[in-house]
Amino acid sequence: MRKMRLLAIVVLAVFGLSAVAYAQTNQYSFDGKVPSGGTKSKPKAGGFTFNFAINDPTGNVPTVVKSYKFNIAGAKINTSAVKTTCTAAKINAAGSDDGCSSKAIVGTGSIRAEIGTAGQPWDGTTKCDLKMTAYNGGTNKVALYLDGTDTTKCVAPISQAIDAKWTSNSSGAALSFSVPDELRHQLGLDVSVTQVKSTWKKLTAKKGKKTVGYFESTGCKGKRAASVTFTTEDGTSTPTKGTVGSC
Q1: Which terminal Cβ of the chain has fewer Cβ within 10 Å, N or C?
Q2: What percent of the chain has pLDDT over 90?
Q3: DSSP one-letter code for 121
Q4: What is d(CA 114, CA 59) in angstroms, rounded to the nearest whole number?
């Protein structure tokens, strides 16, 4: 009887641990720097940085994120400040960004991903380091081109653009996009993004007698609020709030 009790305890413990491991979810964080100053009547043009990280607290490959929405308070976007464009459709049709003008570049950055099975231990070798180039894609559009053609840095030959969209809301400006399936899964494995770093240029142009910026600060109070909503493949959305500089 005592052995049966001990066996029952062991079984419960194993199932309990399994339940805890299964219940673990991604942890998210972000940081950035947005220029201070500006008002709604007199916006201030500037560049900004925005970075985020995703990890599984158990040390396993994180659950794959399918879509993102970044919101920056006290901000305004004027994509018309950049005259040259290069769309995601053009890049994907060509298979590269070779045909894009450097005049269309609005930002650059890098992406790190772990390749494996989400929720399982990562072997530490199947990784992917991508170069990211953001192109003005037209009115309120951005083409996020991901270049992983250097096979010494990425085990999967990725060369594809994501169609992203800027929107305005009562608090500021937001950039949102969904990641295509072929970028979330390669070679029968999950491509789980763990880190993104981006720098967006200060770009201006004349609009009549006014000078407008691609990105403008319209002011805020105290610290500049920002948020990122991460939505995983199973439909779980996690809003993450923070600040990205002073006003």
Answers
A1: N
A2: 79
A3: B
A4: 12
